[in-house]
Design brief:
Layout lengths: L2 E5 L2 E4 L4 E8 L7 E7 L6 E6 L6 E2 L8 E6 L4 E6 L8 E8 L12 E2 L3 E6 L1
Parallel strand pairs: 2-11
Antiparallel strand pairs: 1-3, 3-8, 4-5, 4-9, 5-6, 7-8, 9-10, 9-11
Length: 123
Amino acid sequence: QAQLVESGGGLVQAGDSLRLSCAASGGTFSGFNVGWFRQAPGKEREFVAAITRNGRNTYYPDSVKGRFTISRDNTKNTVYLQMNSLKPEDTALYYCAASPREPAWVTTLYEYWGQGTQVTVSS
């Protein structure tokens, strides 16, 4: 069973960048696909990015494609989300999640969740 802890959130201005980290413990980290999700107040949770176990494949929705980059370092049991050109609509609580099953882009397969880190983008 994986335990996940997010960090790196904060308050930034539109156009700025942030890098979120997701540190994992428990289980074999390289055995999990990892995804990032976000949820803004009053809205449903939204898929942001996913990366396969070996890091070779990544997935993004159109809303963040070209601005966000997911990566992982299995030697450090950590997944990163680099967020560039941030917009006010990116404001949300960002969660990372892990899935032991395939495929990585099926968001309903994510079983283990962190507590989230807040990202606020001011205009």
